[in-house]
Structure formats: structure tokens, C-alpha cells
Amino acid sequence: MDASSTSPTPAPPTPPAGTDEPPLGAIGASRPRVEGTAKVTGAVRYAADEPMSELAHGWVVTSTVTRGRIRDLDTSAVLAMPGVLGVIDHRNEPRLNLEAGSFFGPDGGMHLLQSEDIPHSGRPIALVVAKTAEQARSAAMALRVTYDEEPHDVDFSADHPAARPATSHFGEDATFYQKGKDKQWDGATRIDWDLEVDPYDPLGTPDEAMSLYGTKHWAKLTDKDRGELRRHYASWQFSQFLHGEQGAMICAARIVESVPDMDAKFYSATQVMDEARHAEIYGRFLHEKIGMLYPSNDNLQSLLGDTLRDSRWDMPYLGMQVLIEGLALAAFGMIRDTTNKPLPQQILAYVMQDEARHVAFGRMALRDYYKQLTDAELREREEFVIEGCYLMRDRLRGVEVLENFGIPRKEAEALSEQSEFLRLFRKLLFSQIVPCVKEIGLWGERLQKAYLDMGVFDLGDSNLDLLMTQDEEIAEALDRERFAAEERERVAEVAEAIAEGGAAAS
Fold this sequence. Notes:
Blueprint: H1 36-40, E1 57-62, E2 68-74, H2 76-79, E3 84-89, E4 117-118, E5 124-130, H3 133-140, E6 144-149, H4 175-182, H5 187-190, H6 216-220, H7 223-258, H8 262-290, H9 298-309, H10 314-338, H11 342-370, H12 375-393, H13 399-404, H14 409-418, H15 420-429, H16 433-439, H17 445-454, H18 464-505
Antiparallel strand pairs: 1-5, 2-4, 2-6, 3-5
């Protein structure tokens, strides 16, 4: 059996049956919308086209001043117009449990019509309700509003009267944002890219860790084939890391957009930069050191899609910070702690230092928020976690690698499942996820049964803070070792120069 030493060009993976996921390579291609013809010919019916009995319609009235307070709302003319059922504003809207001076409720969402204060232009101040949309819109124009207008304020100086310490809506100091700024680094300089990497043994993977080891296929492989197999496995693993980081960058940007708290937005902005740096580093390692790249795994694509499609701000945290990042931390850590190759060890240690911070922030944000959810809302998120964990469990099997070596997919799946190393690897992959899920309050009966089925239930009592501290210390120890080595080299160079100068003088 011989495998080519050139980069593989495996066909894009077929989407799972019954899904609408586009195949890889769809981006940038012209593809007609399946419902396009029906839409432009008027054949499609929209929700508004369906008649409903006793349906009321609303029209939102927004402020015409940039900043100030509502002195008076005169609704008499509105209520006298045909079809008008009522006007909802801050005077009759039921009160919510808002923090003093805040426009956010306990669920993290922005709530309107709770105060006469106008924080910005276009702020919704009333809702006119009528029997038809046209009646509501016409009546809204008759609403008379008197404002106590104030000058707009765009002063961000520290001595501003409204300035406050950087505390978080989630109940803890905004130390994560400060750490996010302090811990920024340049992958081009912190990592020693001059270190040599053997592309046919980039991670120092032992034979016993290969899925084919001990099978009839292993005996047929030449030494060259086995080196090529190691190259493919390393390429496949780091390619999945790369694609995960690309997805993490998009999810972090989504969190910046959707999370209601400004301090959380600040921290998440630093995470966008972290993920971009990680994608850059993994891409460089694959292209320069291994010379091979695999496409994204279907299961990762599916979980990323589910995470990004949900409009609720906590779902990108749950999908990315807890599931995808938690699994990545464990996978990175296994390779970091077992490889004897310095370059991948450096890469993984430094990336893990960032990722541990990301997971910790997600834990803090979700732990406080999930205390306020109903049982039904918690169950919904637990179902998401269960589905995501099964997807992630099946993500890192490397079946695609074996297929590239001529092994049929079903046999490749069976060989992967029989691998003792893969069983251990899978269990350790959940060492970060299970205790994190338990800590944030998603620990219902169905979720516990799922973890028992996966054989990872006992990981729920792991100490996440200790794991995070260890990741931080390992990265800092690598820095100290490298700086000490560089210092020794500089001292030796100076001593050599002095000796040469002394010899020349004599």
C-alpha cells in the first residue's frame, strides 16, 4: 500500500442526510434560491397573507429627540380615531425588575416602555394598537409628545459625572477584559518558527496511537507509508483546529454584536483578536511545516451552524465557549502533554493560555444568567448540549484519513471505534466540558444520562480553576525557558567576541 507524498485533495464531504447544509466550496459560487421563482411570481404566501380572526396590529412611535425625558404623552386624539384599541407607553406598561438606571432586565434582554427617559434618538416610546395595520399607522401620527430635551453627551473622559468603575452586568469585576488586553501576543515573534519539523512525524506520534496499529492494514504499510499516515493524521488534526478557530472568530464577533452588557462586549472583542491569531498560527503550521490541509469535519460544521443561527445571546456562549472551546482545550492539552516536538508544543501551549481564559469567561457569564431561567428554558439548552456533545464525540475520529489510504468508510469507522487510544482520547476530550456544564447549572436528568452513556459522567467533579491555572503556568514556563536559552546564547556571543578581541590585541 502506497500513499502519495503530495497534498491530498479529498472531495468536499457530503452534508448529512436530511440537512440543508451546503457542501464546502459553496461560498463564492452562484446558486439560485430554491424559492426564488415562487417569490417573484407571487406564488409564495407569507405569514401576513394568512387571515386570522380578532388579530390586532401595532405601530411603534419613536422619540424625535436625541436625549431627554418625556414630559407628557397626549393620546386623546389617537384614542378617538377609528379602529384604535389602545396606546401602550411607560405609564401603563407592566413594570419589570430592572436595575436602577439600566435598560436591561434580569434575562439580559433590553426592555422598552419602562421609563420616561430617552437615552438616544429613535427610542421606542409608545405602541399604538388598532384593528388594522393602516389604522394603527395613521393613529400613531396623531400622538402628541412633549419632551424635556437635554443636550446629547458623547464625552468618554474618565472624570465624566456618569463614569463608573469597569464592573460587569454579570456580577463580577471586568478583570477578564483587562486580562484580554494584557495577554495579547504576536504569533510571528512569540513562537520560534525556525524550529525544524519533520512532516512525516510532526508530533512524534507512537505507533500504538494509530488507528491502524495491530490491524491487517498496518502490516502492509511500509515505513514510508507509516510516515505518510502520520503526516495525514497530523494534518487532519491541525486542520480541524484551524477550522474550529475560524468558527470561533465568527462566533466571538457574533457575541460582540448580541450580548447586552458593554463589559462583555469589550472582552469578547479581545477574543475575536485571539481567535484570528490562532487561525493564523494553525494555518502557518499546516502550510509551512506539514504542507497539507484537510477540509472541515461535517460535525463541526453542523454545531457551528446551530450556534450561529440562534438569535439568543447566550447560545454562542454555550456552543462556542463551553462546547467547542472546551473540547478544543482538552484536545490541545493531550497533544501538548504527549508530543516531544517543541514547535507544536509551543503553539498549543500558547493557544491554550488564551482558550482557558475564553472558557472561564463563558462559565462566569452563563452561570449567573442561567440562574434566572425557567425549567423549560434550561431543558432546551440541555438538549442543545446533549446534541452538541454527541457531535463533538464523533468529530475527532479521523475517518477521512483512513479513506485516503483506500479503506472503505464503514471499515474506517469500525477501526476508529475499536481503537483503545481513541476511547481514552474521547473521554479526556470531555474533561473540560462536563464540569463546566455542571457548574453553569445545566445538570438535568437527561443530560446526566447522556454523559453516563458516553462514559464521562465522573468528569463532572473536575477542578476547572486548577486546569486553567496549569495551562497558564505551562505557557509561562515555556516563555521562561526560551528567554533563558536566548539569554545564554547572547552571553556566549558576548564572551566569544571579547575573547576574539583579546586574541587580536595580543
